[in-house]
Structure formats: structure tokens, C-alpha cells
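Retro notes - structure team

What went well: the batch runner handled both jobs without manual restarts.
What didn't: labels got mixed up in the shared folder, which is why I'm recording both outputs here explicitly, each with its sequence directly above its C-alpha cells.

Job 1
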Amino acid sequence: MNNRAYPEKRRWNELKTACKERAGWQCEHVYPNGKRCGMREDEIRKSKRRQGKPYVVHLHAAHLGNTNPGDPDPELICLCPKHHMQMDRQIELREKLSTRRRGYQITTTDLLLEEINTAGITVEECSDGYRWRIDGTDVAGKKTTAVGAVGVAIHQMRCLLDRTKRQLEEVERERRALHG
């Protein structure tokens, strides 16, 4: 037990006992078929992982959803260790995208163009490829693929930005020379 999360151990013991009593000392997890988990407090089970060695089941008073463990009146559910861990893992997975999912998310050409067209670059499909232009400038071109058009347009925007920075630095130097 994390003592910093549960500073009042006596209060926590009262809460978890009340949770287990409310549940009839049985896990409250309900399977998709509507059947309730049959795991009960102090039940002796045989381990599937440790060559059938017996163990005693101790139910948990689990915080529902994103309840703060320091909350003096938390919303609790009585779960066996297996279902408590499953619930915690589901919450963790919802809160962060896996590296694999982020790395291999499918993006269609239409989605790519929809997003890029809101960023100051216009890319339009034509009969022989994709025409691109940087909005507000005369910088434009054509590529055979949408990704190629986006890549060149972004590179050209970077070049415009670098050129503008150099021009601003030159103006600043001239200003200092006049006033310095």
C-alpha cells in the first residue's frame, strides 16, 4: 500500500472493509455475458502459473475511474487482484498512446491534404500529380505525389523563413549602426 496516497491507514481500512461488505465479499467484476466473477475473499485457489500451488485470495477495494487515491470519500469497487490489475491497465492505456500506434497510424492522402491546407500551404490534385503553393507568396510548384508536394512546400517555407530572419538581422544591424 502506498502510505503517501493513504495517509489515514485506519480510515482506509474502514473504507475497504465497507466496500468488501457491500459486495458480499465477492469480486464485483461483471463479464460481458452478464455473469459476475466468482472470486471470494479468503478463498483458496490453485495457481495456474506456479505448478498448482495453493494461495489465498485477498480482494481489493479499487478506486473507480480517475478517483484520486487521497480523496477522503472515494468511489470504490471490490475486485479480485486479476480484475483490479485489468482495470488499472485499461485506464493507463486510455491515457497514453502506445509507441506502435503512434508510429504506424494510417493517414490517407485526403487527411494529409486537409490538414496541410489549413497550415498556409495549398495542395491540389491535378491530372498529372499535385500542385502546391505557399499562401500569400508566389512560391509554388508541382510534384507527382501528395507527400512529395507537402515535403517540397514545407522545405520552401523553411527557406522563406530563413531568408526573412536574415533580412531582419540585416535591418537590425543597420538600425544599430544608425543609432549607435
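Job 2
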Amino acid sequence: MIVASMQVDAQLVKDKSINVAIGLGLSYPTDAIDVSGSGFYVQGEYVNTLKKRIDIRPYAGLILTKKNSDYNDRHGTDFKSSANALLIGGKARIMAPIPWVAPYVEIGIGASFGSFETLTPVTNIDKSGVFLHIPWAIGLKLGPNRTYDISFSYYEHPAVKQSIGAAAIGFSFPLKSK
């Protein structure tokens, strides 16, 4: 999908750019318990702008989290949520037409290659492999050309009963037209 989208020169695509985001990675079990993991997150996207407010974004990213010991220290347990995965897939973004500060939402589908560990009172999962994820995000594009952004991105993993995400900042590099 990524290679094919880079080769398409249809009139439908108005602009192309590369977006890079980096931030704090987080992992949470889908159980209603206060357990989390934290770490590092980085992602790159090949942005195809269809209209001023709609983008198609193939992406690749990396998230590395380990368990936070705060909950375990308070309650004397060994619950955990951790993820070490490569993320690939595609997303669509819809942005509000507001200059300088434009809010947006994203949704898509992708795959995660890596290992996930979720240990709570009702879940005991320690799996490695390839897992389906559903990415979604909310954020703000900033600046006169909307080259900066602040986002909260999440990736729901039903197979491992875990949600991973990030609080990230990003920058877009426009690509020259032919």
C-alpha cells in the first residue's frame, strides 16, 4: 500500500509531504484498572493531500514502553502493560479549515509487529507476533502553513487487550512537485 501510494500521480492528490512525529509512548490494558507503561514513540507518514482538509497517510512507527511501577508500589502487586512494536498502516485525516490552529481527527487500520504484555487481575497476555490495530488520533496543526502539529495518537489492539498511544509533536516537510 505504501509503495503503491508513492507511485500514483493522479490529479486527485494536490500536495505531498513527509510528517515526522516524536513523543511520549504509553500503553494501557483495556481492563478498567489503573496500570500503564510509558516510553518512547516515533512515527513517519507519507502525506497525500486530497483537498485542503483531507489527507491520506500511510505510516510507519515505533513504540517502546515498559511498565510503570507507581501502581505496583502503591498496591504491592506486579501488574503491567508494556509494548515493543513496529507500527505500519494507513490513516485518513479530516482537518477544520481554521488558519494557524486547525484541529483534526484521524482514523485508519494497520498492523503491529512486536511483543505485548498485559497482566491485570482479569488478563494475562504475553504475546509476540503480528497484530491488527485500529489507529485514531486528535490533534492541532499549527502555523501559517500548518507545518507543526501536536497530537494524541492511539492504537487499539483487540487481540492483546491493550491500547497504546502517544502524546507527540510533529513537523511536516513538503515535497516538491514534478
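One thing worth noting from job 2: The chain has one domain: 15-174.
We'll revisit the folder naming next retro.
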